[in-house]
Design a protein that fits this description.
2 copies of one chain form a homodimer. In chain A, about 45% of the residues lie in helices and about 15% in strands. By secondary structure, chain A is an alpha/beta fold. In chain A, helix 1 crosses helix 2, helix 1 crosses helix 3 and helix 8 packs parallel to helix 9. The interface between A and B is large, with 62 and 62 residues. The structure holds a DNA duplex.
Chain lengths: ~350, ~350
DNA sequence: GTGAAAGCGCTAACAG
DNA sequence: CTGTTAGCGCTTTCAC
């Protein structure tokens, strides 16, 4: 395998009979003055010899790094896939690359990634935290790391946050179900180990209370396994399992709300297996509005969390901060939206 | 914002009263001999002062880079999300990071990424090519870049390939449908711009021919838009649109095969909208076996393409090659598997 | 306008 | 065993 030698600015300099400083100035688009004809000649030579800049050299010198990191639970969750797509869109436009790290809900892994990213001189990270180790985070931030957190709050000064009004989302979901005449409502959720999950439940219950209702006995179902090993189908299986429990109840709920769409798919699936018609017999509602929620039958009524936009926003804020653009505020709060499709039906009488 | 200075091996050296060479030797786990007590003292000091190695410095010196790149059409396709997860799993275990690049089916973007990855001194890339610009690729490979290609072949020496027997997969799909008594079969596909798509069709037709059948008039439906702008729902919408055409036929097919699961979801969805029962009236079959194919109703019968394993394999081969482990063969061919679920039914009489 | 030289953080001959 | 030195590819003062 004949491996060609890479050409550096010194090679170009030698060939052109100038100093490498000059070559650097033209090839790095420096604003420093270089005579027009020299500039052209160097550019020409660079082209001819297929000069490819070595960013490592540049980085070491300038201490600027054009890659950011993203740490999320798992890319196999379409919600995060969408966030990631938004992040990359902005990153690409601004000349950045993005390192993807799946923490698999493992706090240890998350910290390892944070550390190794920093070792690679990554200056900005977008994080959907699970461990929230604020000692490590604070230390790294003191050393210049910029952090934007999505999906939860982190009690560390200077972190940027893209927040989402989960509690309002939960409130909206319950309100919609109540409006459609439902009184006995089932609630199915993954473990409440993330603030977002707790907030949704909170908002949901608030809406019930406002209408003189509450989650009746057995209607609230939470996954028993505290820290699920993160397989791709955990949420789905969880939805199925908890729905089974709901169906064992003496009196079924007339509607079931799931903490996210993936879980709602499990609900839908289990109901279909039991020949329960949706929405005729039981209505189902999800949360997130991932792309697939429009693809299932019946199409899922859900609460939209703007995943793609969150990704774009997170990345914009991060890159602004990294380029010392003044960011107006450290927090942004995004709002939920009700997406009505066909999985929720009207219930005439209680 | 008080930004602490980062501590380098020289700082540690000064504090310990030794040379930075010695510090480097212990902190980089060099096999070079250093007396035990000196070693311990340096390690202690490094810990106390929160020494964090600067990989950029190391990289520049050693010309070894612990990050690889992955270029795929879009992470919003769960198939690629799964591949990515497999890649990262292996990468992480071996101390690598992975840069994710979504080419969005855009050949220009793909080349840009290849180039900029190389500028960042990335030595290995996993590629699901669309453009297949072999000039660029050859040039980069001559400069030492290692490439593993999935989902298609690339006519460039030394590229590693993870292949999949698409044509056999197509053959298996058709065979299954025929076995279940179907004779008039609809075929729905995205544009045949990728070899994989052409191979599936080829295998499918071969099986039909082997049974004295063929795709009848109007039963073969391919997306008109040659190069779809890659939105996340393209495949789904495509499945819907083409199914509508199939339903306009004088005589419906009794089964519909889709080139991938996403498209099959569109088929399922459109049929449901038209009150066509699956599989009673029409059977549906997909390709890929993405996780969601088990979540739709009815659960989708499909051909499994081992996405996660492909990712792991691709990454293993790549890292082996990068560490000069001798790779036994440049190609690996993976085999399809039939996954029977509930979307295909028996048809008693033709 | 252009060049010489120092140095980013690290490793690896080479000397001792 | 430990230290001195050079240099990876690049940018950036500082001279001229």
């Amino acid at each position: 395998m004949p491996m060609n030698k890479r050409v550096t600015i010194h090679d170009i300099a030698r060939i052109a009979g100038v100093s490498s400083a000059t070559v650097s100035r033209v090839l790095s688009n420096s604003s420093y003055p270089v005579s027009e004809k020299l500039r052209e000649r160097i550019q020409q030579l660079a082209e001819e010899h297929h000069y490819i800049p070595n960013m490592i050299g540049k980085q070491l010198k300038t201490d600027r790094n054009m890659t950011i990191g993203v740490i999320i639970p798992t890319i196999s969750n379409p919600f995060y896939a969408s966030v990631m797509l938004g992040v990359e869109e902005i990153a690409r436009r601004r000349g950045y690359h993005v390192l993807l790290c799946n923490s698999l809900q493992d706090g240890k892994l998350e910290e390892d990634y944070l550390q190794t990213l920093f070792e690679k001189q990554v200056k900005g990270v977008i994080l959907s935290s699970i461990s929230g180790n604020s000692k490590l985070i604070s230390r790294l931030m003191k050393l210049g790391l910029q952090l934007v957190v999505i999906e939860q709050q982190l009690d560390v000064p200077d972190v940027l946050q893209i927040e989402f009004d989960y509690s309002r989302g939960g409130y909206m979901a319950a309100s919609h179900l109540i409006e459609q005449g439902h009184r006995r409502i089932g609630y199915v959720t993954a473990p409440l180990d993330r603030p977002s999950r707790r907030l949704i439940l909170q908002g949901f219950q608030e809406a019930l209370r406002a209408h003189g209702l509450s989650l009746e006995d057995g209607c609230y179902q939470v996954s028993e396994s505290e820290s699920p090993i993160y397989t791709g189908t955990f949420e789905f299986e969880n939805g199925k399992r908890l729905t089974r429990k709901l169906l064992e109840l003496q009196e079924h709920p007339t509607a079931i709300f799931a903490c996210n769409d993936l879980t709602a798919f499990g609900v839908l699936h289990e109901l279909a297996e039991h020949q329960v018609k949706v929405p005729d017999a039981i209505s189902v509602m999800g949360f997130d509005n991932i792309e697939f929620s429009q693809m299932v039958t019946p199409p899922l009524t859900t609460i939209k969390q703007p995943d793609y936009e969150m990704g774009k926003m997170a990345c914009s804020m991060l890159l602004d901060k990294l380029s010392d653009v003044t960011v107006d505020s450290l927090q942004v709060m995004l709002q939920p939206k009700l997406v009505v499709r066909e999985s929720v039906g009207k219930r005439s009488s209680g």
